[in-house]
């Protein structure tokens, strides 16, 4: 092909793609509007009056909706029938956008959750809801544990169990090391020794840096979680090396504030919803509201979040 022909071909393809995106976006919007009408149509049995076998046939023939889509819409819309804020989200972003919150939102909190659903992608919202539930149920458990007597603090309730499969030799060595003491003390000692060893090999921060994280720093950071997301309780493989002070603000790769995160938790960080983000991750919790006056938000996160909640046409680089 000549250059001219190649260019013409490229323009044609781009045009087709743009049209498809445009039509698709409109099709989705109209399907969302149809879905919102279904409960009322079903309630008034309009499908029957118009000569259809059932609501499914009605929705399939008139709007191309599958049986699953109809069931899903009816089920979710039933749950939000007294929450106009969530209906509004469905109208704007579709049924999927409210799926993570339908069981947690109440009439009193619907506004809070609607805001979150508008600002976050579905995956990020799921991660947020998971943390939210954890913090709320944990709070209840701790309340019941904190009885007047301090003895209870050392009761078994405050320890968690970890099951491990070990080589019998290692098991024996560990048992010897524990000796007459307890596992918690031994593990603490081992951890401290390991952390001290890591600390000794810590590379110095790179200032006035380019975006690319130097291998030495990257390796050090990833060893700390063995390539896993550092968010408390998360076991997913990391996807981004997250700069807790935001690289664009500091132009620095600091091994202490460069944190490996999975996609959902990195998005949560850029949504400005991580409490104590500048401390080490074991102190992290989710926040209820984003601080929209902070420099991080104003200069960076606002734009990153906008990008994340928008349609992702291009892939980002893997540092954030
Ligand atoms: Zn994670």
Topology:
Blueprint: H1 3-43, H2 46-49, H3 55-63, H4 67-79, H5 84-93, H6 95-98, H7 110-119, H8 122-145, H9 168-178, H10 183-200, H11 215-223, E1 240-243, H12 247-250, E2 258-261, H13 263-270, E3 274-275, E4 285-286, H14 295-309
Helix pairs in contact: 1-4, 1-5, 5-7, 8-13
Account of the 3D structure:
By secondary structure, the chain is mostly helical. Helix content is 56%, strand content 4%. The chain has 14 helices and 4 strands. The chain has helices spanning 3-43, 46-49, 55-63, 67-79, 84-93, 95-98, 110-119, 122-145, 168-178, 183-200, 215-223, 247-250, 263-270, 295-309; strands at residues 240-243, 258-261, 274-275, 285-286. Helix 1 crosses helix 4 and helix 8 crosses helix 13 (263-270). The longest helix is centred in the first third of the chain and has 41 residues, at 3-43. It is extended, with a radius of gyration of 26 Å. It starts with a helix and ends in an 11-residue tail after the last helix. Mean pLDDT is 88; it is low at 143-156 and 311-320.
Please indicate the count of domains. 2
Query: What structural class do you assign from the helix and strand content?
Result: mainly alpha
The hetero molecules present are:
zinc ion
Gross morphology = extended
Q: What is the topology, as strand order, of the major beta sheet? A: 1-2
- Element order, helices and strands? HHHHHHHHHHHEHEHEEH
Q: How confident overall, as mean pLDDT?
A: 88
Report low-confidence residues grouped into runs of 5 or more. 143-156, 311-320
Q: β content, as a range?
A: under 5%
Binned, the helix content reads: 55-70%
Number of helices: 14
Number of separate strands: 4
């Amino acid at each position: 092909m000549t250059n001219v022909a190649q260019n013409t071909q490229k323009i044609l393809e781009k045009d087709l793609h743009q049209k498809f995106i445009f039509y698709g976006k409109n099709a989705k919007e109209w399907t969302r509007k149809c879905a919102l009408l279904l409960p009322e149509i079903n309630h008034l049995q309009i499908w029957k009056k118009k000569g259809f076998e059932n609501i499914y046939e009605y929705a399939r023939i008139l709007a191309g909706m599958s049986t699953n889509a109809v069931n899903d819409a009816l089920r979710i819309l039933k749950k939000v029938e007294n929450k106009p804020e969530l209906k509004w989200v469905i109208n704007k972003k579709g049924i999927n956008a409210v799926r993570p919150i339908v069981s947690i939102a109440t009439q009193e909190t619907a506004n809070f959750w609607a805001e979150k659903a508008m600002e976050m992608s579905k995956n990020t919202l799921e991660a947020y809801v998971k943390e939210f539930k954890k913090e709320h149920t944990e709070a209840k458990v701790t309340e019941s544990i904190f009885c007047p007597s301090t003895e209870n603090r050392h009761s078994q309730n405050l320890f968690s169990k970890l099951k491990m499969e070990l080589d019998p030799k290692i098991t024996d060595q560990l048992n010897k090391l524990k000796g007459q003491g307890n596992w918690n003390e031994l593990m603490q000692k081992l951890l401290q020794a390991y952390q001290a060893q890591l600390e000794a090999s810590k590379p110095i921060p790179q200032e006035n840096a380019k975006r690319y994280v130097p291998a030495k720093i990257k390796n050090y950071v990833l060893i700390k979680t063995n390539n896993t997301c550092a968010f408390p309780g998360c076991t997913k493989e990391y996807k981004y090396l997250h700069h807790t002070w935001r690289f664009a603000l500091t132009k620095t790769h600091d091994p202490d504030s460069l944190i490996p995160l999975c996609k959902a938790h990195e998005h949560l960080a850029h949504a400005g919803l991580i409490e104590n983000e500048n401390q080490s991750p074991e102190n992290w919790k989710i926040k209820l509201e984003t601080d929209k006056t902070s420099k991080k938000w104003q200069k960076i996160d606002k734009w990153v979040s906008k990008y994340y909640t928008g349609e992702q046409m291009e892939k980002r680089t893997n540092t954030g």
